[in-house]
Every structure is written in C-alpha cells, then in structure tokens.
Amino acid sequence: MSSDRFDIVRAWFAAFNRGDADAAAAFYAPDAVFDTDAGLVQGRDAIARALADHCASWTPALDGGARRRVRTMGSIETGIATEWVGREIEIATGQVLEAAGYDHFTILEGRIVRQRQVVRPHDAESTATVGQRPSKRLYPERPVVGVGAVIVQNGGVVLIKRRFEPLAGQWSLPGGTLELGETLEAGVAREIREETGLEVEVGPVIEVFDRILLDPDQRVRYHFVLIDYLCRPTAGSLAAGSDVAEAVLAFPDELPRFRMTPKAVAVAERGLRMAADAFGVHPVPRALE
Asked: Is 246 a catalytic residue?
C-alpha cells in the first residue's frame, strides 16, 4: 500500500466508486473515525459496514459508472481536502441524489485516522448554523479574529474536544472568537473560563496565523485569524463547558494520541518550551487538581 497521502485518497475514491467497501475500509486505521452529518462512525469495522450498507442501497449514476468525481484535491493543514460532485440512485425507490460535497482526510503513517464528509444535495438550501445556532463565523463577510491558549500546568497542556464546527469532534487547544469591544487578553481569558472552567493568567503571544477553509464551490466557508497565548491557571477546576465535549490535561509524550492538527501540536510544544521563561517555573508533571 502506498504511503503517499494523495495516492491513498485517490485509491479510496476508486474503491468507493466501484462499490468495494472492503477495499475502501482497508485504508483506515483500526480506530479511525468517519465523521458525517449523520453522526460519527468509529472503528474500521464499523466504517466498513457503513460503506457496505451505502453501496448496497445506492447505485452509481455518473458517466463511466462512478458515484463521485473529484474536482479538486489539495494538501491543507489538517490533511488532504477533496471537493467532488456526485450522482447516485437509491435502489429501493429510484430516487436520484445529485450532490456536491467535500471530504477532509487526516492520514498518519499511511492510514486514514479521520475523515470528515459533507454531502450537499443540489436542491438543498444551505444553512449557516453551528449545531443549531446561527453563526456569523460561517461564510463570513470578512476574516474573523479568534484567540486560543496553551494552558500549561505541572508540565502538561490543557486540550479540549470540540463539539461544533470547525473541527467538530477533534481535539485542539481551547479558544474561540473575539467579541466586539473586547481586548485580546480579555477574550482569551473569557473563552478559557467558558470552555474549561479555569481562571488564567494570560502571558505572551505564542503565534499568529490564519485558517481558511473553502466549500465545494470555492467560497470561503471559514476564515479565522488566530492569536494563541501562553497561559497558566490561577483558579477553578478543569471541566468541559457547553461548547466542549471533553477537556483534559495532556503531557508532552501524550500529544500524538490526540491527533490534533500539525499546527496545534507545534503551538502546544512551543508554549511548553516558553513556559519556564515566561512564568519563571520549571514544572514537574502531575495531574491537575
């Protein structure tokens, strides 16, 4: 099996187009996650069953007998992003599904560890929602300013699993968008309190960067300018807020298993290196109390 990420994605689409669920499933890691609008499918075996059920229910209807034709494929921060058009017919009812969509593949060591798939039927009205709430972050008129934090305590860094898009279901550093009239430092302190239950001392800036995600029609779906700060807790207890599925303290050797984006890992590692100079401490790893 090729270790080239583009070859893996091309081969996945080829297997899916010919209805070979077992061949498509072979590209996943055993504990892979397939994230769709219908929910999460966890584990290679479960993904294989889901793909097989789909292929047994829908027949390909594009020219050449394909289900989906990839229009664009590119490498982005979070992995390989593809945009495609599709046409399938439901065997039981004869319903024709014409759609455009995208898949984001996160690939580690030659295996798909996460796949985020969005299918947008051509006749469906698009909605600008995150969960069930209207969102000004989706299809914004201008870039949105976001703040994030590397919260360091006792040699570890606080991570959260996001409940909503973007990166729903994925682990990342805590943070969110800046509110009107709010300073950057106040914004990051508020977001940390809301997402983790911690009160923090806000330290220096670690890094400033942008994140831009496009939809299948090449429109800007998200555009964030992100400022990450180094922080340390001063009060409170670590707990997941309403926008967060989980919150944990992770130590440096544990970061790979959380499968964050390469950028988030790099920012976390840089924050850990900066902590001793910024706060004048040399922590010994132990759990957050």
From this structure: yes
SS (H, E, C) the chain: CCCCHHHHHHHHHHHHHCCCHHHHHCCEEEEEEEEECCEEEECHHHHHHHHHHHHHHEEECCCCCCCEEEEEEEEECCEEEEEEEEEEEECCCCCEEEEEEEEEEEEECCEEEEEEEEEEECCCCCCCEECCEECCCCCCCCCEEEEEEEEEECCEEEEEEECCCCCCCCEECCEEECCCCCCHHHHHHHHHHHHHCEEEEEEEEEEEEEEEEECCCCCEEEEEEEEEEEEEEEEECCCCCCCEEEEEEECHHHHHHHCCCHHHHHHHHHHHHHHHHHHCCCCCCCCCC
Is pTM, for the whole model, over 0.70? no
Domain boundaries, the chain: 5-121, 137-279
State pLDDT tens for residues 83-121.
888 999 988 888 888 888 889 999 998 999 999 988 887
What CATH topology corresponds to 5-121? Nuclear Transport Factor 2; Chain: A, (3.10.450)
Residue 283 has pLDDT above 50, yes or no: no
Q: Catalytic: which of 98, 199, 246, 254? A: 246
CATH class in words for 137-279: alpha beta
